[in-house]
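lol forgot to send this yesterday, sorry. struct tokens for the thing we talked abt
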């Protein structure tokens, strides 16, 4: 039986696995092209997801602004959001199982729905 997400180290492991999948994915990898600062992005994502799951206050920022900026350069599609959600959920399921694992998948799906609604309907 898989353990649940218990701490920031578990979040880091999840985020790293997810982005390894993203880097290879033909649908969404192009959003992370040459010159992308992976170290900076991963650190932000560790803090973002830690805050989402454990309410640590470790993240401050506005992900909507960043995604609107991305969309203005390379339009996001429903297919992109669906693939992002699939890869994220697959990564969670590969590593973890339990209450926090279910919570992070629910939050990720909700975030994707809000983003796609705001971005694709703007």
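and heres what i got for the seq, position by position
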């Amino acid at each position: 039986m898989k353990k649940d997400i218990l701490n920031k180290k578990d979040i880091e492991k999840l985020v790293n696995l997810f982005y390894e999948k993203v880097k290879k994915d033909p649908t969404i990898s192009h959003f992370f092209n040459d010159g992308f600062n992976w170290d900076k992005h991963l650190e932000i994502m560790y803090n973002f997801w830690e805050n989402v799951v454990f309410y640590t206050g470790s993240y401050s920022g506005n992900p909507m602004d960043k995604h609107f900026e991305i969309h203005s350069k390379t339009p996001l599609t429903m297919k992109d959001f669906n693939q992002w959600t699939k890869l994220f959920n697959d990564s969670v399921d590969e590593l973890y199982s339990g209450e926090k694992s279910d919570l992070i998948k629910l939050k990720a799906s909700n975030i994707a729905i809000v983003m796609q609604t705001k971005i694709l309907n703007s």
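The chain has a mean pLDDT of 96. anyway ping me if u want another try
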